[in-house]
Structure formats: structure tokens, C-alpha cells
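Field notebook, page 478. I keep forgetting to write these up properly, so this time I am using the form the group agreed on. The chain and the ligand, copper (II) ion, are recorded exactly as supplied. Prediction of the bound pose follows.
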Amino acid sequence: MSRICLPTVDRRKLLLGGASLAAAAWLPRSALGAVTPAQEFTLAAAPARASLVGPPHPETDVWCYNGSTPGPEIRVRQGERIRVHVENRLPEETTVHWHGIRLPNAMDGVPHLTQKPIAPGETFAYEFTCPDAGTFWYHPHQRSFVQVGRGLYGALVVEERETVPVDRDVTWVLSDWRLLDDASISGDFGNMHDVSHNGRVGNTVTINGRIPETFAARAGERIRLRLINGANARIFGLEFEGHRPQIIALDGQPVEPHAPLNNRVVLGPAMRIDLLLDMTAQPGQRFCIVDTFYRGLEYKLLDLVYADDAPLRDLANATPVRLPDNPLPEPNLESAQRHQVTLGGGMMGSMRTAILDGQQVDIRTLMHNGLVWAINGVAAKGHVHEPLLTLERNRPYILELVNDTMWHHPVHLHGHSFRVISRDGKPTRYREWQDTVLLSRQERAEIAFVADNPGDWMIHCHILEHQAGGMMGVIRVT
Ligand SMILES: [Cu+2]
């Protein structure tokens, strides 16, 4: 019953797809308990060519899983166990990180910290259970600013146990490339300008590996649109002209359905947002979806095109879909221990020194080592460090994340989801569960969680050039 689907899945077809699939859906998973056999998948990471821009432009040399970028969408159901054989056919070491999945530390895919990197020609089997339903993704954690930037990533969708009442379930893996005139990838990965400013923001945006032109819809349709930001550094701010999308999940975790602030869906690198998109306009109409995040650099992502068919239904009084909560431990804020995690450095910042390999060094020495960022005054080189925090297992914690820089940072904690409980001292309205929280320049946010997953977990900026430039650390749960 393994299913690897194309990035866009038509749920109606899946549901009506014949007796064999229907029968598979009724296998007694829960009855089998812990001995449920894992579903097997294979991901082969290798160089390939892809038509990102489309004719007449040449194809682009990319790095792919199973020959495509994004890699295959892995779809499983909540509570199922998967085993993924990752074959490395790249010219360098790699690993795979299962972003947002609460899994055992040894399966987290962090080179040297949780596993030996997979050498060229070798295979590593990742095996874990997916406890939470939602939209997740996978990508390398080894030299990710190069490997993700060359096209290695894919969606991991964990379906709810109960069917969610939508007409179509659509995944958009958003990405961003820096291409030269001949459609080849610019080789300037990790240059100091990108590292010290806002990262490698590219010049070509793709959805599911292609420059999109139109998205076809039907009047009266309800679409669950799973947005995944797989870009190294680009932050998206999507506006759906003529429509009122509702956010129903953030980073895979259900949230009280709500309209995005200013009707703009903001998605930092590595973040996921599930939208309920009601097609409330008339047959034959056409709308723009635009990305307005960077002022002065707004562009049209694609056109939303309605078919001429009669409306599927009247959505005038339709109520939003509320997804069932995942089994996350609720942190007790009264008894939670507090810590501060401060991000520093970067251009126009105030950082003059940081600790590198246990020594206080000046900014010139840091830059000589390719580092311009720090967490709590420590600039990280590589993935293995003394923990910046050691947390006691099963205890609640509040971390105050302080962005003491002039740049945005999407901060990702591995192995846990956390509630974002305040921003700049004000309680958040939805106390959303996330695994990656986007901080604006000089912004503070409090996150709360129960440290229930033992091991050494990365906390880092998901602008991959910032991570490579020192903005990462380790949180140990004992
Ligand atoms: Cu950053």
C-alpha cells in the first residue's frame, strides 16, 4: 500500500480510485499497534536535468531525488510507520532531515550530530512513525545551502485519520533559484554577501519545479492548498486576488481557521501553511496570485483561472474546515522554566565579537572563517557543539527568542513543535503550534513546549546561508 504520488494529488480520484485502494485504507493499523510494518520508500539523490524555465530555454543541471525536483511526494496516514532507503549518488556526502516530524533523534538526519553522513555510493535507512497529521517536508542537512539550492527537497504529507471534506488536496512546493542566462544554476553558493545579508534570494520562482503560468479551478470548489517553502532564503507573501483564503494549519499543526493578516500569506523558508481556498468567483473568471513580500520586488506568481463549468456548489454559507488537533503535550506555562535565545550578527548589526571553538574572537577572525552570525554569542561551525541549553525531559519550557539583528530569521527547532505564545510582549491570538517561527528584525517571540523528545536537537535559522554562517546551536534534552 505504499503510495508515492505526483506533487499534485486529486483527492477525488484517490477516493474513487477503485476497490484495491479502498481495501488498503481499511487495514487494521491500530490493532497491530507497535508491530505495524513500515511502508517502504526509496529516495535516490543524484544529479539530473530539469526543465525549470521551459522551452526554448535549455534544461538545468539540478540535484534530484528519484530524478525530479521536488522529489516524490511521500504520503502516509497519521500513525503509520515508514522506512525510507536513501541512496547517495551525489558527488558528496548527504543526509535527509524530516522537517517537522517528531521522531527519534537517531533518525533526524543531522550530519555528525545524529548520524554519520551518507557517503557517495552508500545507502542509509530512515525509519520512524509519523505521530502528527499535516504537511511536512524532507531535505538534506549536509551543506544544505548547496544541496537544497540545487533542488533536493520534497513534500511529506501525513493524512488525517478521518477524511477532510475538501474537493481537492493540492501541494505547492515553492522554490527559488538563482539562474544564469543559459538557465544554469549560478555557482556562487555561500558567498559572503548572501551569508551576511538576507541569504541566497534567487531570480526564478518555481512551483513544483516549474515556472507556473496558470492554476485551473472550478467555481464552488473547496481546495486544501498545502504551501511548502523549500527556498534557501526567499520569504513569500502571497495575495490571492478576489479570494479570502483561510489558514487552517501552520507547519503541519492545525490552527483555528483564520484569515491571514492583511490577506497576505507569509511563509518564511521551511514553513508550511495549509490554506482552505474556496473558489467563490464566477465561471470563466481570472485572478492573479501575487507575491508582495519584498517591497519594490513584487511579481505575479501565476493566474488563477476558473473553468466555464457551472459552480460545483454554493459556498456562500460554507463554514471553514477545522482540522483535528495532533497529540502534542501541552506546556504548563506556570511551571515552565524560561531561557533566552538571542540571535546576533549580520550586516548593520552590533556584533563585534563572538565565541568560536571556545575562544572569544573579533568579527574579522569570524569572517575569515565564513561566519557572521551567532546564537547567544556563539558562532557555530559545523553541527556538533556543546549544547546552548540542556533541558530536562518532560518538563515545560518557555524560550524567549530575541532577534538582535537587522534581518528576518525563520528559527527552526528540531524534534519538537512549540506554541508561539507572544510576539514583542503581546500574546498571540491563535497560540499557533509551529516548528519554524519567522522573526522580523529586532522582533522577540516566546515559544513554549514540553521537552519530551530526548537527544541533541538543532536550533537554527532556516535561511540556509545564515545557518552556514554560524546561526545554529544545539539544545540537549536529557
Ligand atoms: Cu537567519
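OBSERVATIONS:
- The longest helix spans residues 19-25.
- The longest strand covers residues 39-50.
FOLLOW-UP: compare against the apo run.
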